[in-house]
Amino acid sequence: MRIFHSVCLPKYVFPVLSRWTGCYAAFLCLVLTLARAEDECPVSCVCSRDSGTVTCRDGEDSGEVPVDLPEWTSNLIIQGKNMSTLRRGVFVDNTTELEITTLCLSYNGIQTIEPYAFLGLSHLHLLDLSHNRLESISARALVGLPQLRSLYLNYSVLPEAVTQLSSALSSQTLANLYRLDLAGNRLKSIPLETFDSFNLHILVLVNNSFENVVRENVSGLYQQRHMRVYLALNPFRCNCDLEAFYYWLKNSSQCPDVGRLVCSEPENKRGALVERLRAEDVDCNLENLEAVSYVFLGIVLALIGVVFLMVLYLNRGGIKRWLNNIREACRDQMEIYHYRYEQDSDPRLANVAVRLSQTCPSSLPPRQVNDLIQPSASVRAESTCSSTGLSTSKLTTCPSQTAATVAATDSRGRFERGSGDQSECSPALCDYVHLKLLQHHSPSWLLHRGLPNFLSWSLMASPPTHNRSSRPEDDEDDPVDRMITRTGCSEQHYAVQECMAEHQDWRLCQKQVQTFKDCMSSFQRARKEQLQKQLSKDTQTSTS
Ligand SMILES: *[C@@H]1O[C@H](CO)[C@@H](O)[C@H](O)[C@H]1NC(C)=O
Ligand SMILES: *[C@@H]1O[C@H](CO)[C@@H](O)[C@H](O)[C@H]1NC(C)=O
Ligand SMILES: *[C@@H]1O[C@H](CO)[C@@H](O)[C@H](O)[C@H]1NC(C)=O
Ligand SMILES: *[C@@H]1O[C@H](CO)[C@@H](O)[C@H](O)[C@H]1NC(C)=O
Ligand SMILES: *[C@@H]1O[C@H](CO)[C@@H](O)[C@H](O)[C@H]1NC(C)=O
Ligand SMILES: *[C@@H]1O[C@H](CO)[C@@H](O)[C@H](O)[C@H]1NC(C)=O
């Protein structure tokens, strides 16, 4: 060095001195040199020769690497300086090669590292660039560090410099790199293209933004059996993408802080340890299957819905009919019940004809009694029933001019009416009103549909409550059957019944009904005469 040479000048100035003197001078020189070198500590630095450490902190000489470092310097610590840029060859010494092995440049606010910035540090083992604000790193920034074993870049790399860092690290010049610290850099992926060009044993990725380690990188990790990767404090997303990484954690034991890896997503797994996840949590097949099955289920349900609607639409007529049928069936059921109830509770119904004749008093002309059972146009005439049951029953009958109206009142002021078209001014209409009125006095089931219908109705109603195949002798208990048997019209009655059994519709059996009705009429005529005779006999005996 310069100083050494100047100190050593006398050696050449006094060549005549004895050899001993020369040696002595040389020794003196050396001592002096050492003494001077010790003084040589750069301004605003602290030097410790014993440990070979030069520490420069917070100097007022802003931003520059001290130039004249002692040659014994092996550890150089520069901290708290404001050096935005590390220039090319900033550590190069023109005369001697520096033997620095440890270079600490943390907390210097370094933003840019130029190419070949660390030239001349071929003995460097450790480079600490942590806690800077690196925005720009040249791809050749780390050239010339063949001995480098540890590189600290924690809390230092800004997101915009990550890709540049990746190429700087991959420049094939860090063959001995053993430890790489990249903590706290908001990294989402490993900024290394390959692990092969290093001797990496420790990779610190703590406190970054890793949500996953992709399958590709995991297979790289499997090949670096000796490597340990620290991954705590990363926000892992514990879905099925994690599968490869999950198995690597389980199988390889390359992650020493595996017990501190925690899921931060999804919501339901937040805070769960990654290593404690179940295999099915990270099984993509299962997850896909689940999704597929839900979609499939949805489609099937939608199809069923559409088919159902279509069936409804196409079958709207049928459904309407079906609903009507149900309603009919219900009504029929009710009627049957009604009928059975009346029949069971009122044994007097055993003989309808007799009962009706008793409803009207003796003063009622028998013809009218008959008319109640066997209605005819003659009912149109005004008639009076002047005693207990139907006293002063008044019947106004059709035809009127415009429409057929039949109205009737009885002595108690009960009023009933029925109306229809003029063409409907039939005996049936008269029957209907008349019988409605009569309903107040006689069993209501009689009047349910008017008398003509009643016949068919009662025939229709009785089979379900009795064995349809039964013969008259089996039906001894049925009052209707008993009545009909007594009239001598049972044959016609069964004809109707059979027809009904076949068609289930009394309208299709009108011929049979008519025959039956005729038979009944003739029976009733006979019965009427008999009643009349009996009446006159009764009056004779009562007056006498
Ligand atoms: C650092 O240096 C830059 C200029 O190089 C200057 O703008 C900045 O204020 C300095 N910061 C500090 C903390 O000294
Ligand atoms: C080192 O040498 C270069 C030329 O090679 C020169 O420009 C520079 O000033 C020298 N530095 C010192 C500190 O002597
Ligand atoms: C970061 O760098 C410092 C050195 O400056 C080191 O001591 C520390 O262990 C590194 N790692 C973390 C995670 O802070
Ligand atoms: C993680 O890094 C952020 C900055 O990236 C820092 O603020 C935080 O303190 C770090 N957390 C831990 C536990 O080191
Ligand atoms: C990590 O994966 C990325 C792709 O996602 C790839 O570009 C990169 O080379 C991989 N790095 C290592 C070290 O496997
Ligand atoms: C990891 O271990 C599981 C069982 O624990 C095994 O099924 C899987 O094949 C292993 N993966 C590798 C890559 O060794």
From TrEMBL:
Region (Disordered), start-end ranges: 462-482
Residue ranges occupied by any LRRNT domain in the UniProt entry: 40-75
A biological process term (GO) from this entry: negative regulation of canonical Wnt signaling pathway
Origin superkingdom: Eukaryota
TM annotation in the entry: 291-314
Keywords of this entry: Leucine-rich repeat, Membrane, Repeat, Signal, Transmembrane, Transmembrane helix
The LRRCT domain, residue ranges: 234-285
One Gene Ontology cellular component annotation held by this UniProt entry: plasma membrane
Signal peptide: 1-37
A Pfam family this chain is assigned to: LRR_8
InterPro entries from the UniProt entry: Cys-rich_flank_reg_C (IPR000483), Leu-rich_rpt (IPR001611), Leu-rich_rpt_typical-subtyp (IPR003591), LRR_dom_sf (IPR032675), LRRNT (IPR000372), Wnt_signaling_inhibitor (IPR052286)
Name used for this protein in its record: LRRCT domain-containing protein
